[in-house]
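hey can u run this one w/ protoporphyrin IX containing FE bound, need the structure tokens asap thx
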Amino acid sequence: MGKIISLQKWLTGALIFGLMLSGNLASAQDEVASAIRRYKAYEASTGYYEEYEVLPQRQRPLITIPNIRQGLIPYSPTAASVRSRTHLADSHQGIRFYAGRQCADCHTAAAMDIHTTRANLTCRQCHGGEPIASIHYYWSPLNPIRRHAYVCSKCHEGASASYAAYVVHAPNPSMAGTMKSFPVLFYAFWIMIAIAVGTFVLFIPHTVLWGIRELFVKKKKTGGEQDEQE
Amino acid sequence: MNRNRIRRFTPLQRLSHIFLIITFLVQSATGLGRMYMETAWGQRLCWFFGGYEASREVHIWVGIIMLCGFVLHVLYLLAKVEWKGFPQSLFGPDSMLPRPADLKEFFQHVAWFFGARKPPEFDRWGYWEKFDYWAVFWGMVIIGVTGLLLAWPIAASRIMPGWGLNVALWVHRIEALLAMGHVFLIHFFIAHLRRHNFPMDRAMFEGSADLDAARHERPAWIRRLRDSGRLEGMLVTDSMIGQRVLFYLFGYAAVAAGLFLLIGALINVPHISW
Ligand code: HEM
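ok here u go:
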């Protein structure tokens, strides 16, 4: 009897200790991986929710950079390897003078997206207060497994995970790097540009030359109904 | 009165064109207003339609009205097809479908610009008119599909992944810029500024074209009508002066609005983040 009670105490203790270690459980975590339907009825993003619904996954829409090394990555030719910051609880951990800086000092391009420039959002409205977790940190509100519910739907009522696959910090579609990171955007952009430029390259000189040429035409007045041969 | 004009467009066709002018200008103004929201120019454009949010509503609903017009136009086309003798009947000289002769006329026309050849004898439609027509046709499809996806993004992300909206926005943007550039520069120039039409080709408003001008530029059309004995029945008199004033006012208001949008957009290009 005494043995069982002490086993129970041990188990309870281990459980509490384990929960303490694992950080806050997000309430979106109580989603079940249903065998029938859950998101599937509403979404067409990956179709894999039923198996992986509550697992952290990198659901980046074809915008992974092939061959990039995870974990330790070389920072520069001279420096030692630095830590990849994509999975940290505090993504800015260890950065000197962090408190005195502004997000856009380093994330210049990221502060130029439509959400910032048009809707006047500040970084923290989505990324939260300190410490700002890496997107792929398991408990981050912006982790792809829950960002639609935790972040997007604050403004976009009914946002789904597929909806959240919209690339907020979209790369510049014209750049060569985008060919690897977001090929559909890159090719759609350049095909459309080719059509537009092609039209103008053909029609602007055409129209200008036409306008000039007509200045040298005499308008004939034959006046009204009579219709002799030209 | 002198019957010095020849019927060219039906009242329904003229109405469609006015419908397109108005919806296109509203779409351009509201779309550019939002796109240029970071600039004072864009803010003023949006202000005109009731602000940043309201401009989006206007853009979406006028866009839907425009697309309904497009659907009606397609139905109209289906009703107009001569199903007897289909599909050869589609390629007659009164049809907007391109024919090999258009390509020939294009090269001959360009050669004429340089004084190398005689001008081509156009039939009812010149190649540039056919190009404009089909550009609008496909433009409607592209801009309409992407516009609807952007208008209801949550519903759209049920049928495609959300990153499709990134693509849709850029396709919509570039197609819109192409359409506006083409209309405000090239279409306006051809219809207003070239000497043949200066100060304005009223045909699309009045329904009839100047017979002398048509004889000069489209002799094949006039000859064809004369040989088949239909020319006499298509001659009409000029419109009344009051109507003409109205046509000019409307036409020039559209040109002014278009140039205002084009110049404002070009000037402000460096001031927005893309
Ligand atoms: C000739 C027709 C049209 C023109 C010239 C036009 C132009 C534009 C432009 C310039 C933008 C701004 C892109 C940006 O924000 O960077 C835009 C956005 C948009 N357009 Fe259109 N558009 C047209 C037709 C349509 C149609 C038919 C629809 C669908 C109903 C539509 C729906 C939208 C939507 C939802 C947006 C995003 C608005 C926003 O949130 O800023 N547009 N359009």
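Residues B 24, 27-28, 31-32, 34-35, 56, 59-60, 63-64, 66-67, 143-144, 147-148, 150-151, 172-173, 176, 179-180 surround protoporphyrin IX containing FE (CB under 6 Å). anyway lmk if its weird
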